[in-house]
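Page 47, continued from p. 46.
Same chain as before, 211 aa.
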Amino acid sequence: MTAPTHNPTPAARHVDIGADRLAKVYAQAIVEAADKKGCRREVLEELGAIVHDVLPKVPKAAAVFASPKITIEQKEALVDRMAAGRLRPTTVHALKVLARHERLDVLADVVAAAQRLAESLEGRKQAAFTTAAPVDAAEQARLVAEVEKAVGATLSATFTVDPAIIGGLVVRIEDTIYDHSVATSLSRLGQRLKQRSNHEIQYGRDRLGTA
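Result:
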């Protein structure tokens, strides 16, 4: 992985570039490096496992990754212990690049950005489904299939529950929201009724003015 050119001063380390943009820069470098070795899926799976399975269960390791007081050498040594023949060289190199640039604290953001980039390159779009109540796996699959057919795209879907939408479904695909919730329907109905009332009042005034 070719490291992004970046040599901030300590004071500017966390204000020189937006967190989202920063994550995308490193994510692109990781994906490109993995693609050169033909192991994109494996590298992202290994990095994802560290973020979601290892660090939450090993608080000391997470603290080392996040601490600016731990030296780069100590962080690289921890990476080597975590790898111990279990991680691909490309994965280890990506972690060490982040360590050298003191960016291991944003590993989760980098991995999420890399996964989004990979899905985009594979022709998949991120989709967030929100329902008023939990739905089982079969219903999730049906909803995803229906929305994929409607929008003409392959989706990488996540599901969350929000009772506030009352019922129905809200789907966000990248920057577009498809809202079929009862709450939104009621709100829109109320707006239409208000507009109709205002129109009728104005119409009555116009007629009185011309009487």
